Amino acid sequence: MFNTKLPTLNELPSTAQLLRSTIIAAIIACVLLVTVVMPSEYAIDPTGVGRALGLTQMGEVKIQLADEARADEVAAQTPTPPPAEAIAVAPTAPATSPSAPVEVIPAPEQPTAPEQAAGLQHEMSITLSPNQGAEVKLEMKQGAKVNYLWTANGGVVNYDTHGDPYNAPRDFYHSYGKGRSTAEDSGVLEAAFDGKHGWFWRNRTSKPVTVTLRTQGDYISIKRVI
């Protein structure tokens, strides 16, 4: 048999050494929490290191996936109203009038000019692989308006139009509208507050889909964030 030599008291770490090792381990854990765990799990990046490493984008995608899953669950639980029964109406004979027909000259229609929004104008296209998501945000001031049109160019995508104020709380969410299996959408986006407002798309089909976005109006900048 081999006899294992027990360490002497001098070879054992002292209380000061154990305390120092514990403090160093705690510091390392805090650094990893702030630079790795928080950005990748919650999209919280107080140091900026997570975005430089691409971890903050990972956390943003996770949050978007969670929001989309909640929206899908709510949509699945919403009962669909039964179709209204068609009511047959018997045709009636046209009424005859002994009086001579009166010629009515319609007033000429005045052409309505489409609403134009001054400011910036951009167009961008993003190709989404199956199950891939993308997000584009406009930086806008409260009350600013932007005319927009996006199309999936023959495909369909799920979308979520929403906004985030500057320094938004973690659980903040403001929706302008969302949809599933949508081919295109257009309208006017009016900023509810100072911050970033835009669209998140996800391709739930089995083929690549190209989303083309056109914007025109009062915004500071446009950027793809995911």
Automatic annotation (TrEMBL):
<keyword id="KW-0812">Transmembrane</keyword>
<keyword id="KW-0472">Membrane</keyword>
<keyword id="KW-1133">Transmembrane helix</keyword>
<feature type="transmembrane region" description="Helical">
    <location>
        <begin position="18"/>
        <end position="38"/>
    </location>
</feature>
<protein>
    <recommendedName>
        <fullName>Transmembrane anchor protein</fullName>
    </recommendedName>
</protein>
